[in-house]
Design goal:
single chain, 333 residues, alpha/beta, 7-stranded mixed beta sheet, 5-stranded parallel beta sheet, 13 helices
Length: 333
């Protein structure tokens, strides 16, 4: 019987070991690369945790679970809207599969400016056609689509609701964030609405925590007994501050989102913001599966919700009319 020489056996063994060592590398190379979603938000993570959770849940229902078959890179502007263009550029440089832009108009505008090819899915406050974000609501065209909850258009309705709680001669102040692109548009619309209603209003502005404090400190000097807080992501993130200051100063206030009322605010009127975040998750899943933003209509709300906090009304010495209570979707007692 022919025997194999020892050197030959040794060479074969070494070759076998070398092949085995390469197996894990080959296996890793064959694993599919999971898509990365770039998440751009004008606010900070903690105040928006429940809303981002709604986005992730709908994304999961679409078949994409963060950390398993999709990754999400978060970029938070922390209320500093001037940081958004650089944050959007970072995500584009990471070659993400799509960008989710939430937290009002600023992140959507930043994402739109940063890329004309990467799909962008938004939640936006102002009319996206008027802002030039999409070509039309039904056929967006381009690389951008999302959810528009009519937030900025509802200022007139909030003004009408607030008047039902106040004496006929009451003066109302309207707070806007001058750094938000929707401020000028909303001011014009509210001025027109106040003129039609014969309501006296004055505008105040704040872009920081200290400026919010200053607004409440000077409302008495302006003879304003009520405050309409315009929609703004930074304001929503500071909802506890608003509720505390309104209670301390005895100010009747109305807000755009129910989150304020849940925190102890008096009244809110607007679309369900959590539903908007869910809709964005649904669209993100569809785009990851191959659909094009140009073919996905901008989603619009089918229902608006009003929330009233009776405990807060009692503390302010207000009697909420029965007809207003009958309209409320949520009454906190």
């Amino acid at each position: 019987m022919k025997r194999t020489s020892l050197p030959l056996q040794r060479r074969a063994f070494i070759t076998l070991l070398g092949g085995a060592a390469a197996w894990p590398l080959a296996a890793r190379a064959q694993r599919p690369v999971i898509p990365v979603i770039g998440y751009l938000h004008s606010g900070s993570s903690a105040p928006y945790a429940h809303l981002v959770g709604a986005f992730r849940q709908s994304l999961k229902e679409a078949g994409y679970v963060e950390g398993e078959n999709v990754a999400i890179e978060y970029r938070w502007a922390e209320g500093h809207y001037d940081r958004l263009p650089a944050l959007a550029a970072e995500l584009v440089g990471r070659h993400v599969a799509l960008i989710v832009a939430q937290g009002g108009d600023p992140p959507v505008l930043a994402a739109k400016s940063a890329t004309a090819t990467i799909p962008v899915v938004f939640t936006i406050s102002s009319d996206p056609v008027r802002l030039g974000i999409v070509g039309s609501l039904n056929r967006p065209g381009g690389n951008v689509t999302g959810f528009w909850p009519y937030t900025s258009l509802l200022g007139t309705k909030r003004l009408e609701l607030m008047r039902q709680l106040l004496p006929a001669n009451a003066s109302i102040a309207v707070l806007v964030n001058p750094d938000n692109p929707n401020a000028d548009i909303d001011v014009t619309e509210l001025q027109n609405a106040a003129r039609t209603l014969g309501q006296s209003i004055t505008f105040v502005r704040a872009r920081s925590e200290t400026e919010i404090d200053a607004v409440f400190a000077t409302l008495g000097e302006r003879s304003a007994s009520a405050l309409l807080i315009n929609t703004d992501p930074f304001f929503l993130a500071r909802r506890d501050q608003f509720v505390s200051l309104a209670a301390h100063n005895g100010i009747t206030a109305i807000y755009a989102q129910r989150e304020f009322v849940a925190a102890g605010g008096l009244m809110s009127y607007g679309a369900d913001l959590a539903d908007g975040y869910r809709q964005v998750g649904i669209y993100a899943g569809r785009i990851l599966k191959g659909e094009k933003p140009a073919d996905l209509p901008v989603v619009q709300p089918t229902k608006f919700e009003m929330a009233i906090n009776l405990k807060t009304a009692k503390a302010l010495g207000l009697t909420v009319p029965d007809k207003l209570l009958a309209l409320a979707d949520e009454v906190i007692e």
